[in-house]
Write a structure and sequence with these properties.
The protein has 342 residues and is of the alpha+beta class. The protein is built from ten helices and eleven strands. The strands form four sheets. Strands 1-2-3-5-4 form a five-stranded antiparallel beta sheet. Strands 6-9 form a two-stranded antiparallel sheet. Strands 7-8 form a two-stranded antiparallel ribbon. Helix 5 crosses helix 8. The radius of gyration is 21 Å and the shape is globular.
Length: 342
C-alpha cells in the first residue's frame, strides 16, 4: 500500500492530477514522492503510521505555516494538505552542494526561521523540552563508570542547569532537527524541510548545534573556531535585523544541556528506549559520520571549554575535562569528528 501515491479527492480538486510520480529516499517515519502538477515539480509527503504520527503531522503543518511568514523564504511553500491521510504537498526545490563555509549562510537562515514565531503563537506548537533529572543521573553514573571523581557541587549545578533550560526565555520557531540533509541549498537561499519535531523555545538551543556538533543529527561536524565565530555572529546579526531585539540566552547552558542527553547519541527511532550513556563504557556504535564515543568526546571538550569561566558550571567544566581525558586514555584511537560535511 505504501507504493501507491496518497493523493485524495480533495487534493485532486485543489491541485489537479499528479503526473510522473517517483518515490524518493526518506526516513522510516515518512514516505516521499516527486510528482508534477500542471507540469511543475512538487513533493508529496505522507507521515507513516505510528503512535505519534498525528502529532508529527500536526507539528510539521503548523511549523510550515508559521515559517511561511518569513520575508526571505526559509521553507518550501506548502501547496496543499490532507489531514485524514497525513499528506502534505510541497514546493519542489533543487538542492546544490553547499560551499565550504556553509554554516555561515545556514546560521543566517536558521535565525530567520526562528524569528518567524513569537509570544502570540504560544500553544500552536509544544514547548521545547530539555534534559531532566533522569538525564542528570545518567550522566553522573557515566562519570562514575569512567572513574572520574564528581565534586560535591556538580549534582546541584546540573539540577540548576535543567531548571534554567526549562525556563529559558523565547518563543522562537525551533526546527527540532536542523541537520545537514534537512537544509536545502537553492539558487534563492537555504530552505529547511522535515519539521516533524518542531517546537517553540529559545533559539539558543539550536544555535548550539553549530558548536556542539549537531546533536540530533547523523552528520556531525566541527568547524574551525574562526568559521564558527563568523557563523554565530551572523546568526545574532540576522536575528537582530529581523526582530529588532538582541538575542537572549546562554549558549554555554544550551551546549551543556545537549551533553547530558544520552538520546542525542542515537537515531530518533532508538530514543526513549534505554539509557544510552550507560552503554558507552562497554560498547561503541556508529551512527552517520561518527561513533557514539566520538560524539561524546567532542561534546565534553566543547562544554569543558565553554564553561571554564562560567560561575554556575565550573564544576561541570572540570568534570567534563576529566571525563574526556579518561575516555581518550581508555580508547586512544578515537579520531576527532570531521570538519567537513559529506
Amino acid at each position: 500500500m505504501w507504493s501507491r501515491l496518497p493523493f485524495g479527492d480533495e487534493l485532486l480538486t485543489e491541485l489537479g492530477s499528479p503526473r510522473r510520480s517517483r518515490r524518493l529516499a526518506s526516513s522510516p517515519r515518512s514516505r516521499v514522492w516527486r510528482v508534477e502538477l500542471a507540469g511543475i515539480p512538487a513533493v508529496v509527503k505522507q507521515i507513516v503510521d505510528g503512535p505519534d504520527a498525528e502529532e508529527r503531522y500536526a507539528r510539521e503543518v503548523a511549523a510550515l505555516r508559521l515559517a511561511a511568514r518569513a520575508a526571505t523564504p526559509v521553507v518550501p511553500a506548502l501547496l496543499g494538505t490532507d489531514p485524514g491521510g497525513r499528506v502534505l504537498v510541497l514546493e519542489h526545490l533543487d538542492h546544490h552542494r553547499p560551499s565550504s563555509d556553509w554554516i555561515v549562510d545556514y546560521a543566517v537562515a536558521l535565525a530567520r526561521l526562528h524569528a518567524t514565531a513569537g509570544a502570540e503563537d504560544i500553544g500552536i506548537l509544544p514547548r521545547w523540552r530539555g534534559p531532566d533529572q533522569a538525564d542528570v543521573g545518567s550522566f553522573l553514573r557515566l562519570a562514575e563508570a569512567l572513574e572520574a571523581p564528581v565534586a560535591p557541587g556538580v549534582s546541584g549545578e546540573l539540577e540548576d542547569l535543567t531548571h534554567r533550560l526549562s525556563q529559558a526565555p523565547g518563543h522562537a520557531l525551533l526546527h527540532g532537527d536542523p541537520c545537514p540533509g534537512n537544509d536545502l541549498y537553492t539558487t534563492s537561499g537555504i530552505r529547511f524541510i522535515d519539521f516533524e519535531q518542531a517546537s517553540l523555545g529559545s533559539g539558543m538551543m539550536e544555535l548550539a548545534y553549530l558548536r556542539v556538533g549537531f546533536p540530533t543529527c547523523w552528520c556531525v561536524t566541527a568547524a574551525a573556531a574562526p568559521l564558527l565565530n563568523r557563523a554565530e555572529t551572523a546568526y545574532r546579526t540576522a536575528w537582530s535585523t529581523v526582530t529588532g531585539t538582541e538575542l537572549h540566552g546562554d549558549l554555554a547552558d544550551a551546549c551543556a544541556g545537549w551533553l547530558l542527553r544520552g538520546d542525542a547519541l542515537v537515531a530518533r527511532a532508538h530514543r526513549g528506549t534505554t539509557d544510552h550513556l550507560a552503554r558507552i563504557p562497554d560498547r561503541d556504535w556508529k551512527w552517520g559520520t561518527v561513533t557514539a564515543r566520538q560524539r561524546l568526546v567532542h561534546r565534553l571538550g566543547v562544554v569543558s571549554r565553554m564553561t571554564a569561566d562560567h560561575a554556575d558550571l565550573s564544576g561541570l567544566s572540570s568534570l567534563s575535562t576529566d571525563m574526556r581525558r579518561r575516555m581518550l586514555a581508555r580508547w586512544p584511537t578515537l579520531p576527532p569528528v570531521p570538519s567537513q560535511r559529506p
